[in-house]
Amino acid sequence: MNFGTVGTGWITSxxxxxxxxxxxxxxTAVYSRSEExxxxxxxxYNAADVFTDLEEMAKDKNIDVVYIASPNSVHFEQxxxxxxxxxxxxxxxxxxxxxxxxxxxxxxxxxxxxxxxxAIRNIHTPNFSILKEKLHMAGKIRSAxxxxxxxxxxxxxxxxxEEPNIFSSxxxxxxxxxxxxxxxxxxxxxxxxxxxxxxxxxxxxxxVDGSGTLVLDYGEFICTILCxxxxxxxxxxxxxxxxxxxxxxxxxxxxxxxxxxxxxxxSQIVSVPLEEKDMVxxxxxxxxxxxxxxxxxxxxxxxxxEIVLRITEEARKQNDIIYASEK
Length: 327
Ligand SMILES: NC(=O)c1ccc[n+]([C@@H]2O[C@H](COP(=O)([O-])OP(=O)(O)OC[C@H]3O[C@@H](n4cnc5c(N)ncnc54)[C@H](OP(=O)(O)O)[C@@H]3O)[C@@H](O)[C@H]2O)c1
Hints:
alpha/beta, Rossmann fold, Dihydrodipicolinate Reductase, domain 2, 2 domains, eight-stranded mixed β-sheet, 10 helices, globular, binds NADP nicotinamide-adenine-dinucleotide phosphate
């Protein structure tokens, strides 16, 4: 399957390298607003074509799939263009700004016989499957704490008076949609949709959240998600059951999982070592869904993506975090 890319940040290079490792996606085209930047990426990874016109790229018959890694608020318009031109789309997280956009894009994808995926690095890893399969070992789940707290170098720029896209309401930024989305995917992937939830952000002067705590209420237990782009943490992720506890090094990509028996206090590592280019797992899953037209697996991913976006949108709106496009 041939694919093209949109956006030339470091994440695009990571995706291309993972795609090459997967042996299932072949890079043929690179788009950038700058021809020079597109050419550098194309030369680095041996892509035949460069584009600076998105409409032209969308009409290229040689492209089957497009990977979009532009600023969040731009995803929707770009994805729609490719879907309407019958290209499958893999769009970086957070897929869109709100559920209305996601529902419209899903309708257009369906009408054009193509798939739309949210690129998320954790739930496609073998360790996510292991965790899901072994979750019963913990007994009745009583609480979970899933942090994703990582100081962003772009916060230095923000403090100097700039407004990097990820701290901007114009570009649909903020800590929850940028980092909180990883543990949220983990929670929804493992536990499903919560009964109710509340978000407690620390807002920046740009109007978006620099950090925050998302409380997911599952009735018999509470899952707390901590996210921040303005501080650093050494906290691990933990899921606490009456019989045992799972401890994860991180919410994405889920590098290591330890299980600790509550009574014996004996511990065991239940995870497997991951590929260094962990995006390879999402490439393999997505390519396989497209190749085999696996509608069941697609429906499952689509549903998680919808639940996650419903939560982040409502969490924002509970706190008057409204993106420029929504005003
Ligand atoms: N999965 C992951 O682990 C991961 C990690 C990092 C980021 N991401 C996601 O990837 C996406 C891109 O993140 P990023 O930090 O690379 O974003 P970014 O630096 O703001 O922009 C990414 C690229 O988009 C293009 N671009 C910038 N401003 C634009 C605009 N106003 N209109 C259209 N295109 C524009 C630029 O490419 P050109 O100049 O070449 O056009 C730029 O290199 C985000 O959705 C982010 O959440 C995911």
